Here is the input.
Amino acid sequence: MTDANGHGADTTTIAPQPALSPENAQVIQLTRKDFVSDQEVRWCPGCGDYSILAQTQKVMPDFGYARENIVFISGIGCSGRLPYYMNTYGFHTIHGRAPTLATGLKAARPDLMVWVITGDGDALSIGGNHVIHSMRRNVDINLVMFNNRIYGLTKGQASPTSEFGKKTKSTPLGSVDTPIIPLTIALAAEASFVARSVDTHTEHLQNTLERAGRHRGSSFVEVLQNCNIFNDGAWRDFTERDVREDRMLILEHGKPMIFGKDRDKGIRLQGLHPEVVTIGENGITETDLLVHDEHAEEPYLALMLSRMFWPAFPVPVGVLRSVDRPTHDRLIDDQIASAIARSGAGDLEGVLNGGETWTVE
Amino acid sequence: MTATTELEPDVQELERVTIRFAGDSGDGMQLTGTQFTRTAAVFGNDISTLPDFPAEIRAPAGSLPGVSGFQISFSSSEIHTPGDQPDVLVTMNPAALKTNIGDLPAGGALIVNKDAFTQQNLNKAAYASNPLTDGSLKAYTVFEVPISTLNERSLDGLDMTSKQKDLTKNFFALGLMFWLYERSMDPTMQWIDSKFGARPVVAEANKRALKAGYAFGETTEAFHTHYRVRPAKLPPGVYRNITGNEATALGFLVASRLADRQLFYGSYPITPASDILHQLSGYKTFGVKTFQAEDEIAAIGAAIGASYGGALALTASSGPGIALKTEAMGLAVMVELPLVVIDVQRAGPSTGMPTKNEQADLLQVMFGRNSDSPLPIVAPATPGECFDLAIEACRLALKYMTPVVYLSDAFLATGSEPWKIPSYADLPDISVTNATDPATFRPYLRDEATLARPWAVPGTPGLEHRIGGLEKADITGNVSYDPDNHHRMQLYRQAKVAGIANDITPLEVFGPDRGELLVVGWGSTYGAIRSAVELLQAAGESVAHAHLRHLNPFPANTESVLRNYRRVLIPEVNLGQLSMLIRAKYLIDAVGYDKVRGKPFRIAEIVDEARRLLAEQDSR
Here is the structure.
C-alpha cells in the first residue's frame, strides 16, 4: 500500500466485502446471540422497543454479513439507543441526522450493510429533509422508523404523527397540527422499498426486516410501536390479538387483498377510491378484489394503501412497494470507474501543473 | 505608476501597474480581468488580483448595483496586494464610472466607453449631468473611446446581431490594454480557440474585437505612450497562476494522496465556497467522491459518516452554512473523528454581503458550539498558501483525530497570484494507521503523545464498538454520566487541542526580533500588512510583522514573540476578534485596527495606523 516515499498509490484501504447471499450466511455461522452487545438495555419495562431489538437481532444472522461489516446508525430519541445494544459497529448521532451520516458512510464504504434506526420525531420532524433526500437518492440503507406518535424521551410532547386534536403535555387543548403519514412521505420521496409492521407482531416484523435487509437501495420500514408510558395503546384499536385480523390487511404480492377472521372481507377499487367489500355479498367474488403488486413501476397502488387507515379501512401491513433502481453508492462508483476507463487514473503531477505554466530560471 | 526609466518617446518603463476593469455585470469584466491576469502571469510578472462583483447574477443592466469590477496589479518586483488604488481605470458605462472613480487617484488614467454615456444610462447611474462634459473629471487623464462603435465596425460582415456583437466589446477594451502594456495577444487568442472552437463566428468576433482594440491603441494619437513592466525576479521554479479556491481544492486532493485515503467532500452550494465543490467534482479519476447534499447539515453529516468509514472527509461552506453545521461539528469533537471544515468567510452577519470580503468568523468557529468544544483552526494567508494549509489541516485532523476548521475568505478564494508548483516528493507524509488489534483496542484509549483516540473503521474484525454524541467513559467509550469522568474527558479534549501548539511551525517574524511595534495579522490581511511593514521599515521605523496561520492553538512561542515589542497592532477585517483572543490569552495590551467595508485593507491604511501608534508611544 505504501511506496518508498511513504505515499500510497491506492486511494482506498478497503478490501472487497462479502455479498449479501445465503451461501455467505452459511460461511459466516452466526446466531442471534452474536448480535447482543454487553450493554444493559435501558428502555422502560414494557416498551415496544424491546421487541424490535429482539427481532432485529434475530434476523441479522440471515444476511450473511460478518458482524464487523454491519453498522447501525441512529438519531435522538428512545429508538436512538438501539445501536448500543447491537454487537456490531454503531453510531448514535444527533437529532434527525442519522440518514446523512449513513449516506456519507455508504458512499465511502459501499461494502457495509447500513441500518438507520429512527423515530417519528427524529425522522419526520427534525430530520424530515434528510429522510426525503436519502430516499430519493436510493441510498442503500435500511431505515427503520419506530412510530409511537409521541415524543417519549422528552416525556410526552406531540409528534408529527400524533393525531389531530391529541392532548399531550405540549398540546393541553389538543394538537392543531394535521399528522403526516410516514409511508406516503416515503413513497413521495421515491423510496424503492416501503413497508409497515407492528412491534408485537413478531413473526411479521421479522419477515419485514428480513425483506428490508435484502433489498438493495433505500428501505423505509415503519414499525407501529407502543410507548406504554406516554402514549399507551397508540395502535391498540387494530393491533390487539382479538381484533387484528378484522382490522388489518396483510399485504402479499400477487394476492388479492383479503382480510378478516373469516377471510371474507376484501378491498375493491371504486372509481379512484378503495372500498371495503364482503365476498359473497352483492355478487362480489375474489376476482373483483384488488391484487397487490409491490413491484408496480408507478406507486399509485402503494400510495393508496399508505392512506388507508383504521377505522375507515383495515390498516395495511407488509411490503407496499419494492422496486429496483440503481443505488446511490453504485452510481457514484460507476461514474468514477467510467471516468478512469475513459481517461486513465488521475495524474497528480498533471493536475498540479495544469493550465498555463511558466518557468523562472 | 512609479516611472523608473524613460526609454524612448513612446515607451516608458514601470515597476508596477494596477488596472481596474469595471462595467456592467453583463459586460464580461471578470473574464477580461482573468485574461489580462493570465497574460501577465505567463509573461512572468508578479501579480495579485481582486475580483469585485455583485451577488446578483444580472442586476438591471446599467444600474449601480450591477457594476462588476476586476483589479489586477502586476509588477517587475515582488508584490503582496492587488494595489491600494488603480493607476488605470477602464469603465464600460456611467454606473461603473460612478462607483469606481472615487478610488482613482488624481492624475490617474481613465478610459471610458464614450458610447455608453447615453442619457438613459446617465439616468440609471443617477448622474444629473454628463461627467464627460461637465468638467467633473478634470483631475484625471481621460481617454474617451467610442468602444461600442469601433468594436461593432470591426465586426462588419459577421453573421451576428448588434446585441451579440456588443457582447464582445470587453475584448476590444482588453486589446487596448494589451497594446498599452506591451502584452502578447497569443494567450487570449488560444483561449478563444479553445472556448469557442465549436462556434467559429463567435471565435472570429472575439478575435477581431481583441485585434481592433490593440490596433486602435497603435494607430490612434490619443495614446502617446505605451508602458513596459518587466518580468519579476521570483524564486526559480515552475509557476502557474492560482486562485485561493483552486489552491484549496488542489491542496485537499494532494492531502488525500499524502494520507493514502479516499477523499470525500460533502457540500451545499454557497458563495464564495462553491468553486471548491466544482473543482473537486472534476477529480473523478482520482477516486474523489463529492456529494452535493440537501443542506449544510447533511453535507457535514455525510462527511462525518465517511470519516467514520475511514475516508479523509471534508465539508465546506461560508459563515451562514457554518452556523448550520455547528451541532454536527460538536458531534465530531465528541466522537473524535478526523474532519476538515472549510469556511470561506464572507461579509455578515446573516446573509450579509455574499460576494464581499470579511474575516469575521474566527470567534464563531472558535466558540460557536455548545459547551467547551475545542478544535484546531488554521488560516492561509495568500491564495497560494491555501494549498499548504489544506495539507496542514488534514495532517492535524488525522494525527489528532479531531475536526479542524480551515478559514479562507472571499478575497483569498477569488484572488489570484503566481504559485510556485511544489514537487510532490517534497510534501510530507501525513498518513496514519487504523486500529486493527482486538487485544489492545479500546475506543477511547488515548495515544500518550497526541492524546488521539484510535481510528477503528467498520469492517475491522473484532473492533465492533459504539460511539456517539453522549459523553464517553474514558478508555472504554461506553456511555457515561459519571461526574468525574465528564470532568476528565473535558480536560482531555482541551489538552489534546492545546498540545498541538508544540507540533506546528513557530510564529515567525519579518523584521527586527524586538522593537517598537509588531503588526500581527491572520488570513488575507497578509499582503497589505507585509507591504505596509516593508514601507515602514524602508522609512527606518522599528516595525515587524508576524502572521498567524494557526489560530487555535497559537504556536507555542506566540507570547514570547509578542512581548518583544513595545506595542502590538492587530489589523483585522472584523471588529477585533483576534485582538480579543490575544488579549484574553496573554494579557497583552494589543491594539486592534478594525475595518469592515467588504474589502481588503489598503496598504496606506495600515501604514497610517502604524504611524499613529508609533507617534503615540513617542509622545508618552
